């Protein structure tokens, strides 16, 4: 009876704790890249659950069927040769499982590293996302605006993030839109995302980068494209221009709230020249980039 109450108390405690937990954001996708990853996660969980149940069922069967019996002390079990079918199953099934998961992982990796399916018909929105201790700077070269610690994006349009860091290595991550990718000081990495559903999402640095790491977060707002264009227009009418002096001040270690500027720091502090996995993406957008990106290209050529 005492054991019964102990087990009941444990179940009640677990239920109470889980009730206060928020749903896993990676399993609540709002974009095609995140949906692919959530699907892979659930498939992996289902496969591993089946394996665990099967193994423990076989273990229980073996323990019951081949448990010790009341034999004499001098009893010796008969010698039995190995069974080729048992050995083939024990070795073959793990190989098949690993091969299956490998194929799924590699295929998914190629999918999430490319422009999201269904968005190839429209030019992507290019956003330079750079980190510093402990804040995020978002530059929109085509729109000529820049934000700090918040990100506005249009829905139903491919997003192409150019990631780099003004300090230690960080990791750009919006769980409901896709996986994380590193931002480094000496190269630009490219991350493809898209948002299918308008809403408010959370983003963060997923790589430890010092004492301010825990609050190195940013807010993401996805909205219809017309609302996004209206926001850009409003910023150009109300925000102050960003200057080299102001940007240098922003790079000082510390936390900041939301900030908005016209222009981008790419005009006087361009992104690193080396692009990892970009495949010449920057060059192919020259036709529709604004004056700030043209200045950036001229700065690069002067080097």
Tell me the layout of helices and strands:
Blueprint: H1 2-19, H2 32-65, H3 84-112, E1 125-132, E2 135-140, E3 145-148, E4 150-154, E5 158-165, E6 170-173, E7 181-183, E8 188-194, E9 199-205, E10 217-223, H4 225-238, E11 240-241, H5 244-250, E12 259-262, E13 275-276, H6 281-284, H7 291-302
Parallel strand pairs: 1-5, 4-10, 8-13, 11-12
Antiparallel strand pairs: 1-2, 2-3, 3-12, 5-8, 6-7, 6-9, 9-10
Helix pairs in contact: 2-3
Structure report:
The protein has 303 residues and is of the alpha/beta class. It has a domain at 125-279 and 291-298: Cupredoxins -  blue copper proteins (Immunoglobulin-like, Sandwich), CATH 2.60.40.420. It has helices spanning 2-19, 32-65, 84-112, 225-238, 244-250, 281-284, 291-302, and strands at residues 125-132, 135-140, 145-148, 150-154, 158-165, 170-173, 181-183, 188-194, 199-205, 217-223, 240-241, 259-262, 275-276. Strands 11-12-3-2-1-5-8-13 form an eight-stranded mixed β-sheet. Strands 4-10-9-6-7 form a five-stranded mixed β-sheet, covered by helices on one side. Helix 2 (32-65) runs antiparallel to helix 3. The longest helix has 34 residues, at 32-65. The chain is elongated and about 95 Å long. The model is unreliable at 279-303 (pLDDT under 50).
Q: Kindly provide the radius of gyration, computed on alpha-carbon positions and rounded to a whole number of angstroms.
A: 27 Å
- Helical percentage: 25-40%
Task: Outline the low-pLDDT stretches.
Answer: 279-303
Shape: elongated
Sheet with most strands: strand arrangement: 11-12-3-2-1-5-8-13
CATH architecture of the domain at 125-279 and 291-298: Sandwich
The number of helical runs is 7
């Amino acid at each position: 009876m005492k054991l019964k109450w102990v087990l009941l108390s444990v179940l009640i405690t677990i239920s109470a704790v889980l009730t206060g937990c928020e749903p896993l954001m990676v399993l609540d996708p709002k974009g095609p890249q995140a949906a692919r990853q959530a699907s892979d996660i659930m498939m992996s969980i289902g496969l591993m659950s089946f394996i665990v149940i099967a193994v423990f069922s076989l273990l229980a069967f073996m323990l019951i069927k081949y448990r010790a019996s009341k034999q004499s002390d001098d009893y010796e079990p008969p010698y039995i040769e190995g069974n080729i079918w048992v050995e083939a199953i024990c070795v073959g099934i793990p190989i098949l499982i690993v091969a299956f998961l490998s194929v799924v992982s590699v295929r998914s990796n190629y999918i999430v590293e490319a422009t999201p399916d269904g968005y190839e018909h429209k030019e992507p929105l290019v956003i330079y996302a750079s980190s510093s201790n402990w804040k995020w700077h978002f530059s929109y070269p085509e729109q000529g605006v820049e934000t700090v610690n918040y990100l506005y994006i249009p829905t139903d349009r491919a997003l192409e993030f150019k990631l780099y860091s003004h300090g230690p290595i960080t990791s750009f991550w919006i769980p409901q839109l896709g996986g994380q990718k590193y931002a480094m000081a000496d190269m630009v990495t490219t991350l493809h995302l898209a948002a299918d559903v308008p809403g408010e999402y959370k983003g963060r640095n997923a790589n430890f980068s010092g004492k301010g790491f825990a609050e190195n977060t940013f807010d993401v707002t996805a909205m219809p494209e017309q609302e996004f264009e209206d926001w850009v227009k409003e910023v150009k009418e109300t925000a102050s221009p960003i200057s080299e002096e102001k940007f240098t001040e922003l790079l000082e270690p510390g936390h900041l709230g939301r900030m908005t500027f016209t222009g981008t720091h790419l005009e006087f502090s361009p992104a690193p020249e080396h692009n990892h996995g970009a495949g010449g993406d920057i060059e192919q957008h020259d036709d529709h980039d604004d004056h700030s990106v043209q200045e950036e290209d001229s700065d690069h050529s002067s080097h």
